[in-house]
Amino acid sequence: MTIMIQDPQTVIAPETNGKTQTYELNPFAIAQRQLDEAVEILELDDATHEMLRWPMRELRFTIPVRMDDGSVKVFHGYRVQYNDSRGPAKGGLRFHPQETIDTVRALSAWMTWKTAVVDIPLGGGKGGVTCNPKELSMAELERLSRGYMRRVAGFIGPETDVPAPDVYTTPQIMAWMRDEYEAIHMHQAPGIITGKPLELGGSAGRGDATARGGIYTTREAAKVLGIELRGATAAVQGYGNAGFFGHKLGVDILGLKIIAASDSKGGVYNADGLDYDELAAWKQETGSVINFPGSTFISNEDLLELDVTVLMPSALENVITAVNADRIKAKIITELANGPTTPEADVILHDKGIYVIPDFLCNAGGVTVSYFEQVQNAYNFYWTEDEVHVRLDQKMTSAFYNVHEMAERMDVHNRLAAYLVAVDRVAKAMKLRGWV
Ligand code: GLU
Predict the structure, then answer these.
(1) What does each C-alpha distance from 157 to 67, 90, 94, 150 come to in angstroms?
(2) According to a count of CB atoms within 10 Å of the terminal CB, is the N or C end of the chain lower?
(3) Ligand 1 atom with minimal separation from the 165 CA
């Protein structure tokens, strides 16, 4: 079936009866729609609903950057503080060519539900720059990162809004940003940003935390479903930080056999399983997983439809939609990405009996260890990696059962259940503050 992309925010899928149907793919419209459904079930009042539908505050700006060839390029940047009723706004920064104010709004809304569902004392925020970091030299990337921080330094802070890494941003970028913030404010402030390098106030265990949290929830999902994961097959869509560690920890902790993995250029398949160290080295060397020795090519679309036990969408939004949901065969979907599944697809997957571990629960391990990082920065005393793992496991496992039990009790799909848990907590905080 061909998908016609009319504009990046809409997909038109041919229907079986010959008529075409249009689906909204603007991530912020999707985020609002998901919220609306939860608000109706929770019977929240109109003011609470309106507060939850929109970012509390947002900043858009331009960043002039001197390029290596002497010219100046102007980039567009964003920082959105969605809701801080439960604590300082918290969420990553994305450097991506498709970044828009609406992707940032959606991601900041999902951060609000994410910190609430794992019950850490933080709100939700997000930021980004429309750019292609693959086309920038290290020196240009540093100037862009410092330029970003100069624009937001008066708007964020350890007690107001704390950024972190996301797609295409790294611990090195966090280090430059911490340095720039401290140069502006003329004092040390390690808690201004998380996901820092270990040498500069980062936390042990932050590097693989997003995937690790998702792997812990997958372990619990398999338990409640009575599925044996040891030796079972899995596929990883997207091979950035979350996807690579999803592969590694899926093998090391759960005993999964990863038979396919992909990135933006395409995917690789091997029925006997792919070795994560070798595949990562190959991607490092060649820039992509494709052509990995001993594997055959598989497209991103076909990878999603493989007959595997666990599917890990680990890249960007809107990969499981009304168009392909019916052809998904996995038993468990471990959503390491933010927003990979559209609302129409959620209903289809639920009807098919596929167990979705929804994004803002599944990938909350990253922000949970970011929170641990802030706690350690404030104490100026650092934990061992084992301590981080134990505390992360407790948080993820308890959040998993909060959502699982809500889904059973209310007879709703897991994403809606996660919304019910999270939105209720944020609404209560706003009520207690007297906002609504
Ligand atoms: N960018 C990550 C996320 O989407 C981590 C955010 C954080 O650590 O603040 O959850």
Answers:
(1) 29, 10, 18, 13
(2) N
(3) 1
Report if residue 195 sits inside a domain: no
Judgement on whether residues 184 and 227 belong to the same structural domain of the protein: no
Amino acid at 111: M
Token duo for residue 206: 């932050």
Same domain, 216 and 355: yes
Q: Is residue 345 part of a domain?
A: yes
User: CATH no. for residue 263?
Assistant: 3.40.50.720
Token readout for 64 is 């002039």
User: Which residue in the block uniquely carries the two structure tokens 């950035």?
Assistant: 240
Indicate whether 96 belongs to any domain.
Answer: yes
Residue span of the structural domain in which 142 resides = 59-188
DSSP string, 289-322: STT-TT-EEE-HHHHHTS--SEEEE-S-S--B-T
Tell me how many helices (H) and strands (E) the chain has: 14, 16
Residues 229 and 355 in one domain: yes
Same domain, 177 and 64: yes
Using CA atoms, how far apart are residues 120 and 209, in angstroms rounded to an integer? Answer: 15
Residue corresponding to tokens 């998908």: 3
Split into its structural domains, the chain has a count of: 2
Task: Calculate ∠ Cα 304-309-311, nearest 5°.
Answer: 35
Span 304-331, pLDDT tens digits: 999 999 999 999 899 999 999 999 999 9
Say whether both 175 and 303 belong to one domain.
no
Q: How far apart are CA 153 and CA 180, in angstroms?
A: 9
Q: How far is the CA of 336 from the centre of ligand 1 (A)?
A: 11
Q: Which amino acids are annotated catalytic? A: 126
Protein residues whose CB sits closer than 6 Å to any atom of ligand 1 = 90-92, 114, 164, 166, 194-195, 338, 363, 366-367, 370
pLDDT in tens, 185-209: 999 999 999 999 999 999 999 999 9
